[in-house]
Amino acid sequence: MNPHDSPRGLSFAIGAYLIWGLMPLYLYTLRDVPAGEVVAHRVLWSLPIALIVLRQNGQLETVAATLRKPRLVAMAGLTAVLITVNWLTYVWAVTHGQTVEAALGYYINPLFSIFLGWALLGERLSRPQLAAISLAVLAVVLLTTAAGGLPVVALTLTVTWGVYAYCKRRLPLPPNEGFTVEVLLLFVPAAGYLLWLEWTGAGHFGRSAGESLLLVGTGVITAVPLMLYANGAKLLRLSTIAVLQYLAPTMVFLIAVAIFHEPFAGVRLVAFPLIWAALVLYTATLIRRPARIG
């Protein structure tokens, strides 16, 4: 991680978070298309973009070498499954009136990552981190009690993305090459599923030019922000990323409430401020850390 922020890195990271933040508006236009079909198109059309980027950067050989190593393929297969479940859950949530809960899932994610570090790596938790996790748990308990069940969408997004990020850090591949290997592994099942949909007459591709273009565009909104973020994060301080990462879920939350008119009342008026307070505690520990080192 760089000791100073690069303007180029900042523009890359902000660009990625803006695309992720606006993504619900794009996905909502595809609300008549089943989530599985949308995700299959995300895989199908993101692969050419990833391959073009790697070819331009001379990185294709790394992908070819990775595919000859069964252990790396197995690790990439696991991350591919995790990101698929994450995408499916997110698309379903946005197109079924659950965008507020999707935002909650991504708000909680940094706190879940702290928990993973403690549970799997034996990392010690500071008092502010313990307090932040406690506030997040309290918020989830309140939401569960009020709804009579767990916030499944939020927890699924939190767990799949958190474990995905944990596994990605242990996959000895640069970010662009790692993403390309994942979509390569997903390409055959995704293409097979789409062909089956077209053969049975259930597919949406080709029904109208506008909808077909939107489905092709899912490749752009999938590959571009992931690659922007991967390259931007290398040029930024951890404390900067800690603040920027809330841009996307905040935009998603505002879109859900102000544009989609999803309900934000009752226990959510208590639970969300608890999460936000937890994130302030968490972010403060990261912002103070570089100052101590310096």
From TrEMBL:
Keywords: Cell membrane, Membrane, Transmembrane, Transmembrane helix, Transport. The keyword Chaperone does not apply. Its main location: membrane. It is found in: Cell membrane. Residues 8-144 form the EamA domain. The chain crosses the membrane at residues 12-30, 72-92, 104-121, 128-144, 179-197, 209-229, 241-260, 266-287. Signal peptide: none annotated. It is a multi-pass membrane protein. GO terms for cellular component: plasma membrane. Belongs to the EamA transporter family. PANTHER family: ACYL-MALONYL CONDENSING ENZYME-RELATED, SOLUTE CARRIER FAMILY 35 MEMBER G2-RELATED. This is Chloramphenicol-sensitive protein RarD. It comes from Paracoccus solventivorans.
